[in-house]
Every structure is written in C-alpha cells, then in structure tokens.
Amino acid sequence: MELTSVYKNGRDYLILPDGVGIPFKMFGMHNSGPSCILTPGGKAGIAAETSKAKKLAEQGFRVLVHDRRNTCAADIGFGDGSKTELEMQVEDTLLIIKHLSLSPCVFIGESSGGRMSLLCALKEPSAVRALCLRNMTGGKVAADVLSEAYHHQFIGPCKRGGMAEVSKALFFQEMAKHNPDSRKQLLGTDPNVFKKVQQTSGDFLKNTFHLPVLGMSEAQLRVLSGSIPAQVFWSHFDDDKMHTRPVMEKLAELMQAGPLIIPKGGEDELVAKMAKFMRALPSLDS
C-alpha cells in the first residue's frame, strides 16, 4: 500500500491510508548494514531516540525513528473505534517499514516501544529480522498506572465536556505545540469513537497484568522465540515497580535470548552491544 510524503511543521511526514501523518527520520539511509527501527518508551518519539539512532548509523546501520500515531508531532486519528491505539500503531509501523524498503528489520524497543515491537513480530513475523527489547513492563502496578495514564484518564473529561474538554488535557496541549493540526483533528473526533478506543486500549493493559509482560502471553512469546532472534536488556533501578528485573529475566528466558544484559556503561555500551548483536545476525541470503 503506497504512502505519500509531505513536509510540514519543519518535519518529514508519511501520510497513511487513513490520512494520518506520521513524522519520521532516517539515519544512514545509504548504509549497507542491517535496517533497524528504534521506538522509545511511554509516548515519546523521535527526540528520545535520536542520539542512539545517530550512533548506530555511524556504525553502518540504516536506522528509522518515528512518532507514533496520537503522540508527539504525529497526527491524531482513532479510526472507526474497532481497534486499540496500539493495534493501529502496529499496523502503521509495518506499513512504514515496507514503504521505506526496510523490511525485514531489527525492532529495537524500550518499554511501550518493546510492546509494540513484539506485537509487530506477532502480526507479521516476516517483517521482523530480530528484536532488541529493553525495560519492559509487567505486573499489576504497571498495568494499573499505565492504563490510567495512557488511556482511561481521558474518558471522564470526554463524558463531561466532549472533545473540547479532552483538548484541555496537558498531553494533548503538548501535542498541539509540536503539531498545530492535531488540535483540529482532536476536536473533529467522534466522542463515542474516542471513548471506545480509550476504554479498549486501557483495558488491554489493565487486564494483562498477569502475563509475563503487559500485552503478551507466554504462549505468544514462545512462538516468537522459535523463529526470531532476540536480545533483552534491563537498566532501571531495583525500586522501580513497573520495569522490574524479574520481568525482564523471564522475558529473556521465554525469548531464548540468553542471559539478561544489564549495561553499566550507559548509552555507548548499549549501542555497542546492539550493534554487535545485529552484525552477528544470519545473512538474509542464507
């Protein structure tokens, strides 16, 4: 499915089939090394991964970073309400890497970016050459906090005052600073569609607290582990109740990724270990 490119707000955007624009940057586009996509945690985007992307490009890799739908400088779009926000972001990402001729590529994801990466692999394994997963969330604390922070908190304002009330939320005000079009897009959203997407998206996180990582069952992870090489990192603190070491140790085990990697040397060590992992991947021709 062909996407179109536009330049607005000082950024390059790819326009998806439903009209939603996604900002993106490519680093090392003409390099010959494996292609990879970096996706940060939370609802962060390009800015959060630019430093790592540049370092990987300097080592010969082709690197994509983007702002996911309904985050940062991306456009706002909730479809017809039949899919969660994460499902839409997964579909968007798979379309984008195909359009840019990066498939199959290595998906490097932290926390929510790791969750999206795993779901991309589950939906379309042939598009994912390998996985580098960092600091993912699991357990009831994470499920309760994230379902509310990312989604459920917006339902009440929508019920009280429609999309105008929703637009007062700090999250959407910040989006409008990066992409002025997003305010009009938000105000033009059907409130019933918005509420449905926020409810189902939040429920997806809240109701999967018992799984190894939020959103992915043990059976699903074992399916992926048999076909997709993986590398698993943890670099949070022991008192972090959402990104815990036991969750990442279990994920490393289920993904047959070898021992959990705990980098002590900051970003440079992290990038070096990811680069070594990607260079060792089997050739696409083998």
Task: Tell me about this structure.
This protein has 286 residues and is an alpha/beta fold. It is 44% helix and 15% strand. The chain has 11 helices and 8 strands. The protein has helices at residues 46-58, 85-99, 112-123, 140-150, 155-166, 170-178, 181-187, 191-206, 218-225, 245-254, 266-279; strands at 4-8, 11-15, 21-27, 35-39, 62-66, 105-110, 128-134, 230-233. An 8-stranded mixed β-sheet has the order 1-2-3-5-4-6-7-8, sandwiched between helices. A hairpin with a 2-residue loop joins strand 1 (4-8) and strand 2 (11-15).
Describe this protein with a few key phrases.
286 residues; single chain
Rg calculated over all Cα atoms: 18 Å
Put simply, the count of helices is 11
Number of strands: 8
Tell me, rounded to a whole number, the average pLDDT: 96
- Major sheet attributes: 8 strands, mixed
State the strand order across the main sheet.
1-2-3-5-4-6-7-8
Along the chain, the helix and strand elements come as: EEEEHEHEHEHHHHHHEHH
Class computed from helices, strands and strand pairing = alpha/beta
State the end-to-end distance.
28 Å
Fraction in beta strands: 15-25%
Characterize the overall form: globular
Low-confidence stretches: none
What is the share of helical residues? 40-55%
Task: Summarize this structure briefly.
With 286 residues, the chain is α/β, with parallel strands linked by helices. The protein contains eleven helices and eight strands.
